[in-house]
Specification:
Four copies of one chain form a homotetramer. Chain A is α/β, with parallel strands linked by helices. Helix content of chain A is 24%, strand content 24%. The first copy, chain A, has helices spanning 43-49, 104-108, 156-159, 162-174, 191-202, 215-223, 238-247, 267-274, 297-302, 316-326, 346-353, and strands at 4-10, 17-23, 32-40, 65-73, 91-95, 97-98, 119-120, 139-142, 148-151, 183-187, 207-212, 228-231, 257-260, 280-283, 293-295, 307-310, 337-341, 359-360, 364-365, 368-371. In chain A, strands 3, 4, 5, 8, 9, 17 and 20 form a seven-stranded mixed β-sheet that branches. In chain A, strands 12-11-10-13-14-16 form a six-stranded parallel β-sheet, with helices on both faces. A two-stranded antiparallel sheet of chain A has the order 1-2. Chain A starts with a strand and ends in a 9-residue tail after the last strand. Chains A, B, C, D: Residues 191-323 form the Alcohol dehydrogenase-like C-terminal domain. Chains A, B, C, D: InterPro entries: ADH-like_C, ADH-like_N, GroES-like_sf, NAD(P)-bd_dom_sf, Zn_alcohol_dh.
């Protein structure tokens, strides 16, 4: 008897999410069917809802941060990206981006996040051959050749964080890693900013400064390792913040690394002004175009002998690194997922993450919302 | 009998150069007196003339790109930075920046160009204890502890290029070197841009594209290794230039490295738009503040997975690397010095390099002007 | 009418090469048939002949350094690894190693030469499904998924060098590139050693020292850029060679990089003794096990603050870098191929490269032997 | 009234330690007198006792790992290497190696641990001008130009660990840092091995394996972060250890990094055999010559695509990085100092660390012995 999967289908830009049912196909050789446990709602999903990604076609089943259990294997020889054999019932985390493995960026530049033919679960139109390819669905058909995934014994509400946290791991790697004993400043305290805080400390930073807000996120920042938090609601003037940041660093030189996870154009010149000379600036926040900003090439780049890295996504390597760390359960990663919602509340999640200032149902503070496609649909 | 040195003293911002005479002191233990052969006129000298460097005090004897012969040693045990013993009569190239060797940037960050207490020949006020510390003088008193210099057998009109050319060597080093077989684009065809062209090819680039002008410089660019030259007078529209550049690269992806040596703010977003994804942008041009420019953090930095390096000056290491290469005399480096002028024509040199569009005496095309302090003064 | 291909089949360890004929199959979707122009004989082929590679199964058609023209495309959409569309008649260079693109080493460590499931043209048993998979054959069936190749307009006797030369490019890359202005010493003057000499200079070395022999190879070393050659027949004592090498370097410190391409165990401690402190040692020579050697961890590794890299093979990236450079035709690469032989002289080639001290037909000095499978068979 | 300092003077190879008294001089401009709190006994001190360092002259006051309080400043303008002003009474950690700041290795290679003219506190003959230059003394005259030191508020029994722990920080830095989420294996569980264990985890390792002994050290290894400990007394056969190590790593591939802190020649081939392909081997253990060992260049270096780093000492940078971390007091660093002894028990300390198998007074397990020169002399 074949399975049926409920999925949340977005019908267009700023459209409706419809809960539809699809028959789950039989997986072929090398493929498998995943029974989704959680799928995180990402800032990129918000941008797709508002039509900011011009490559997206609608209708679409979004959801690229997801994990679950293998429901049915198409063949018995399937191994994860660590070479471990998997079996039905195993929990796995899927790497959403499927790079072609053949193009210049995959084979020669070895930066597969810029693959010329990348496709990704959660970014494909909801029609054949892409049905059941997004995480906002009870089952996902894992079928694209070169799909990477990792077996894990993490609980699913932590495993689901692997993808968003891997972005900061890519960022640190691009900067040659976090200098041991250094001071790292993170701009922005959303899910990626909080991950950067946690991992900066875990990668060797002696001191971590978080600039963000609101209060509840700054509380969690402290639990994840931030030594100093600066609330942008308390210190509204960027010049004041620059002075304050400098005063929190050795010799007043400024942080050794600044990680931009705010995604606000003005954060860039401000963050470059925090930096000590000869240091690292990691740009993670502007994954979509939210406008330009004036910088001064002399003061912001050349005179401070700066290194700036733009970091696009993450690849299998960064997922593996991330998972290996969170599997140690050393930090309260589980506090990052603040809400678990059914399929028919994705629209609410998107509103919370855009127009409603990270509040949901009027009272709660949203960090990461995970969709549980098996949760009973909400009355609406 | 003591020596007397003529020197060109600039009396203030946009002031006069006065030829003054100074008694040359006896060098002490570890010091020496250099008989200057050539001192190059740098874009930074132009900026100092116009008062764009707020740390400079006047009157001043400028000149930080200089070489000459050791006239008198203060002690017999003096060695150059390669550990070679020197004697009177030896030709040496002076490293103008004297870093303290003690501060955070010298000892810990190991980026001495950002030394907290740097002083530099050619940047000090013309009074005790700094008399005879600039290259626009017949003799220079090499006296600051930690001064670095290199013995060389190069002819002086080539040796004088070591310092300006070392800037691009620092730039390439910061980017992890030039990728073997890559395509490098250089924006700007002044002395540093031309050096970047020559050294990109010598460091392993397969193809070098120069964007600059005017014609005569582009001719020299070709002699130094440029495979393609784009005259900004011929292709005036930046969007056209972007298309043209892309079309000159493999798969239309864009260059693997872009080196900004133009020093014009608009060059930065244009250059970032040339770049292939996951590539290197080296900012060498904005050694002074000539204004801001709008960039888009998404398109110019993050989406193309870019690496951007601001490169401040050069240190002993880069001077050593540069000298080792130009000593091989493989390229027509001597064509970079287009004019040799006496001390009382520094003002003309500065005019040529600022208001007069690189023309001197109405007809010639200026690249690098070298001051020969022993040349008979011009009638004026 | 279907094509027939002559191929040289080695029947076992130290066995015979038989010239057999095979029907050339129709290429399927994504595949093509290559008409081989040249296939180089590599030291590894010699080792396979003598049974030193325990993974090899016989009978076998060897030949992994090869280029030719596309005889027949299996589909019209085939592009090379630079994304360039190819058509029948185009000349291409094949990357022999076909990494799986899926395993830990391919996706996570990003060192595909250590792929867990690598297969390679020229290393597979001569039976289905591997018929016509080695370069010592008139036609090669290019069929393994993930096969990389590059279109080129180089003449074939130069194009055939891409693979062996790419080994040194991998070596330099692993060491962070050749330091600009540095002194590089190459141990061994076979095909790879000569390539290392040429490319060290082209990558930015100021001075290249070659230690090897015999005379004719040292002559070619000079033409490719060696500034100093040391003939091991003239200077037989390693201690003498160490002194001599040191005397050829600045301050007697030793070379900044030593590249081991001799493949003789004693070369390793000798080469480590050449090195200046804090420098780079690249081990390229021991691609097979030719025995052990005593080293002293204190003197050879720790005290000189050395960096040592073992370099296994090359991947698509290094082939692309190499091809981009040799396509510039700046050096007499064509002198590396000293002999072009028919299929039934592979045995002679192997004898020349092992027992006969690089002499063929009693008089000539062998560097690289290329097999031309279309040349008339020799009378034997 | 001038101060008098007791110091422990070693009179020759395998000689006696005599407690002598010296008048403490007045510090000059830029100098200061340190009142020693602790001076650690290092394996190098043991080697100097036995005459294994051929550059050492006797009699000597050893002790290069030391901290204390500033007793008297020679001038008021003295700042530490972070640019912080110091005053009398401040606790400081001294960087023992004083590099010249001028030579090729200081300025050009930027690896000051290989400085051509290095001198170091604790390594100089006990005669003018070097009196009171070793840590095994109540006062040390901090007088060499370019001496680096750091102010700290750490307790002295932790501050004294900065120097030995900084060696592993140098090691990790040389390998490009510890890969985030990786598995690191440390060979040897002495003070440096234990530091490597602690810092590997703190630098981003997910899993740390320690191979060493005896039991008490392995217990401390666990407290400092080792996830797996392998007692070499339990698993005596290296081949067994290799199997066991592999079985403790993902996919049986072996550790991503192996740090050799055992200083036993056989550890080198064994450790290289643990390593996964394309990984990092850091050689910290052989700071003196304890003999050679056979390696196989094919299997140990080339075939596994290995990177091997010899790491000589540490410099100011590594001391700063180390201090910044241990100041966070996140781990039980204080358990590393197992014994605090008076000046006249240095001989006992050396016996414990050489002939007596790390036992002192018949019962205790020695890790790091710190000399407290103010402790009442033991009856002997």
């Amino acid at each position: 008897m074949s399975l049926v999967s409920k999925a949340a289908v977005l019908d267009g830009i700023e459209g409706q999410f419809h809960i539809r049912e699809y028959e789950v196909p039989e997986p072929k050789q090398g493929e498998f069917i995943l029974r989704t446990e959680y799928a995180g709602v990402c800032g990129t999903d918000v941008h797709m809802y508002y039509g900011h990604l011009n490559t997206v076609e609608y209708p679409i089943v979004m959801g690229h941060e997801f994990c679950g259990k293998i429901e049915k294997l198409g063949s018995v020889d399937i191994v994860d990206s660590n070479g471990q054999q998997v079996k039905e019932g195993d929990r796995v985390v899927i790497v959403p981006g499927v790079s072609c493995g053949e193009c210049y960026y995959c084979k020669i530049a070895k930066t597969p996040t810029r693959c010329s033919h990348v496709q990704a679960y959660g970014f494909l139109p909801n029609r054949e051959p892409h049905l059941l390819s997004g995480g906002f669905s009870q089952y996902v058909h894992i079928k694209y050749e070169n799909t990477s995934f990792f077996k894990t014994e993490l609980e699913p509400h932590i495993a689901v964080l692997t993808e968003p946290l891997s972005i900061c791991v890519h960022g640190f790697q691009r900067a040659g890693g976090v200098r041991f004993g250094s001071t790292v400043l993170v701009q922005g305290t959303g899910a990626i900013g909080l991950g950067a805080i946690a991992f900066a400390k875990r990668s060797g930073a002696a001191k971590v400064i978080a600039v963000g807000g609101p209060k509840r996120r700054l509380e969690l920042a402290k639990q994840l390792g931030a030594d100093v938090v600066i609330d942008i609601d308390d210190v509204k003037d960027p010049q004041e913040r620059i002075k304050l940041v400098k005063s929190e660093t050795k010799g007043g030189r400024g942080p050794d690394m600044v990680v931009e996870c705010a995604g606000f154009p003005g954060a860039v010149p401000e963050g470059l002004s925090y930096l000590r000379d000869s240091a690292e600036y990691i740009e993670l926040g502007h994954f979509t175009d939210v406008g330009g900003v004036e910088i001064n090439p002399h003061w912001h780049i050349l005179r401070n002998n700066a290194n700036i890295r733009g970091v696009w996504g993450s690849d299998v390597e960064h997922m593996e690194m991330t998972l290996s760390i969170i599997e140690q359960l050393e930090l309260p990663y589980d506090q990052l997922v603040t809400h678990k919602l059914p399929l028919n509340r994705i629209g609410d999640a998107i509103q919370a993450m855009s127009k409603k200032g990270y509040s949901l149902d009027g009272k709660e503070e949203v960090i990461k919302i995970a969709i549980d496609p098996w949760q009973a649909l909400a009355n609406q």
